[in-house]
Every structure is written in structure tokens, then in C-alpha cells.
Amino acid sequence: MIKVCKFGGTSMADGTNIRRVKAILAADPARRYVVASAPGKRYSGDQKVTDLLYETLDEVREGGHVGEAYAKVCERFRGIVRELDLSLDIDSLLEETARAICREGTYDFAASRGEYLIGRILAQFLGMPFIEARDVVKFDACGKLDARTYPLLQAALKGKKNAVVAGFYGEDAEGNVKTFSRGGSDVTGAIVARAAGADLYENWTDVSGFLACDPRIVAGPAGIRSLSYKELRELSYMGANVLHSEAIFPVREAGIPIQIKNTFRPQDEGTRILPITKYVPSGRPVTGIAGKKNFTVIYLEKSLMNAELGFALRILEIFRRYGISFEHMPSGIDTLSFVIDSASFANGVLERVLAEIGEAVSPDKLEVFDDVALIAVVGHGMSRQVGIAARIFQAIARVGVNVRMIDEGSSELNIIVGVDSKDYECTVRAVYEEFFCDDLPR
Ligand code: ASP
């Protein structure tokens, strides 16, 4: 039995937490390979080491040398080494790292040092060999994970009973350090699990798994015991940020289950993520609700749009040129909408895109709705069940919210509702109560 364990930033935040990690690993000899995030926040208002490292590069670019932010990074790592009573020469390592950040001069390199340093520290503390991610995690010229990664990792793990692999980064086709997007040590963990042929990928964080909705919106929501890879993808893409939304791909291909566990409550069961064939349905039609704010909807109307060949294609071509990807494209006979992350339209891009669309397809109507929130109601239990959509919309109507957009993927796994951002929280609450609070008076 092989388990790969990834520990998040809170688990690495200080010496006390790292000792918990050691106890967790010692409790099960199958927990052989470890990936860790850079130290996160110790208390609310604290700074994550990764954020400090991005700031470090800003300071280097401004002043030519590391500054206050790096002093804080040093303080964090020195503190951890002291608390763990290690012999590691952290001062030399930090000096060397400062020189390397100045020399390399990229945000990816600077940010990667958090995982590199904690990986070195953890390896010594656990008495395991350290595997440098640059040597084994490779990106191709398009920035995608290179297939060479798996044989390289397998060779590095071969013959090693245990190892710590640095999370979050690898090396691009030119030999430069490249990171995944934020939270990307989850992806490294999944890659290591696949390369090791693990039976389980344990992802240790600071919550006891996925919740049926955001606890900042509904107090004490139900926990989710079991999720399919597909449900996970939908929920995490839509903002349920327990696990990086791309972390499932490496393990899904190999059918390796993911177990979300809480470092601070290891006795809690957490959430298990499984292929649909092995997944245990909760008995409820809806598994979870997630959502995100800050979308812009571009709405077009044109008579006989349905008969005009290449109409959507001409618009998509404009988006492609601007590097804009859309989230949803609901359509009617003579109407078409695009739901797009508002961040794509900063700095006058929206005006230019609208002008180009007007020119390319001469719509009868071209409108923009700002400040739209999307809410995803996700669950395999919804498929082939009559009345689920009706219940969602009745619940939303009861709280007097106007639905701006509806999108139901053909999988029947996910119904997406667009509302004004100001209505986001009360819509989530209404849908949650409809499906999870059976005893609520109506
Ligand atoms: N340290 C990185 C971040 O804060 C990556 C990770 O934690 O997975 O995003």
C-alpha cells in the first residue's frame, strides 16, 4: 500500500504544526511520499510565505536587492528551524536563496523558493531524502505538463522508501523555474501519487473536507463524505477552494482516490473523491453548491441568427485574439450570451471587444451586464430526477431574486444560475436550505 500525502500551508505554518505532520506520517507506514506547501498563515492577518516572496521580487525590482519582505521570509524559516531543533544551516541557505532570486528575477522563481525551503527543512526533520522538483516536474514549450515528468519522477522515487518532493513548481522547456497557478502543490501531490502508483492520494489541509456550501454564507453547512471526480471538478472550478481544480487530472487517469483530511482533526473522516463507478451517493439530489462573483455577460440579439453560418465563430475569434476565455455560452434561437470573468476586460478591453463584435456580426442588440455572480448546484443525484430545476428556481423566487442566466450542462450534473452579485449570498442560502434543511418550515 502506498499513500502520497500533501500538506497545505497551514500544516507547515510553524514548528508545532510540522510536528503534527510528523505524527500523522508516523501513524501509517503506507504514507511514504510527502509534498508540502510553503508556510501559510499562523493567525488571521498573518502573511503567507508565498505572498512575501512575490513582494520580495517587487522589492528587488525597485531597489536592486532584497528588502523587508525577505526579512520576514527569513524570520519565518529561521523560526521553524529553531522550533524543530534542526542542524540545517538555514542562514547560508537563505543568503544563497536571496542571491538566486535577484539573479533569476522572475516571480515564478521567487515564489517557488517557499516550497523549496520548506521541502529541505521537512526532509531533514522527517529523515527523508529531498527530491528537487526542477529535476522531475517538467513543462513543455506550451506551458503544459510534459509527459517526461512521470518517468523522471518514477526514476527519482525508485528504491526510496520515503521522500519529500518540493511542491508547486517545476522547470520549463528553457530550463527556468515555472510554478503552477496558486495552490498548485495540490497538483504536484497528484502527479507524485500517479508516478508512485499510489493507492491513495491524501490531501491534508486545515478543514475536514468539502462542505456542501461556503461556511461564510451558511453557518455549519453539511459535510460531503464522498464526491466523484466530476463533481469535484465542477465544485472546485466554481470556487470551492479546498483543492486546486486541476489536481484531479493526474490521479483520475490512474483511478487513484483522493482523501481530503484535516491535519488538526485527523480523526475526522474528511471527503473521499472517487471515480463515478466507486462513488457512494449521499442520497440527496444535490451534493454541493459553489459559486463565484465578478462575471460580465455580453448579450447579443439578432433576427435569424440561427440561420447565419459562423456567427458565433466570428465572435469567438475576437475573444481568442484578446486571449479571453468564456465560462458559459447560453443561447436561444436569435440570442447568444457569453459569460466571462470580468478581470479579462480590464483596461479598456471591454470597449474594444464590443466595437469589434459590433463590426463583425452587426447584432440588433448588444448589451453588457456587469457584476453577475454564478452559482453552481452540483450533484449526480440530480440527473434523471424530475423537479430538481423547479425546486432550485422556486427557492430562488421565494427570496425575491431575479435569475439573469441559466445553464444546464448536458451531463445533468450541474445547473448554473447567474444572479446579480448583490443577490449572491441570499441565493446560495436559499438553494442550500431547499436541499439540505429538510425540516425547515415553508
Ligand atoms: N504556496 C503556493 C501558494 O500559496 C502554492 C501552494 O500552496 O500550493 O499558492
Summarize the structure.
The chain is of the alpha/beta class.
Defining traits:
alpha/beta, Carbamate kinase, eight-stranded mixed β-sheet, five-stranded antiparallel β-sheet, 15 strands, globular, binds aspartic acid
CATH architecture of the largest domain: 3-Layer(aba) Sandwich
CATH topology of the largest domain: Carbamate kinase
Structural class, by secondary structure, is alpha/beta
C-alpha end-to-end distance: 50 Å
As a percent range, the share of strand residues is 15-25%
Helix content: 25-40%
Q: Identify the CATH homologous superfamily of the largest domain.
A: Acetylglutamate kinase-like
Assembly state (oligomeric): single chain
Q: What is the rounded Rg?
A: 24 Å
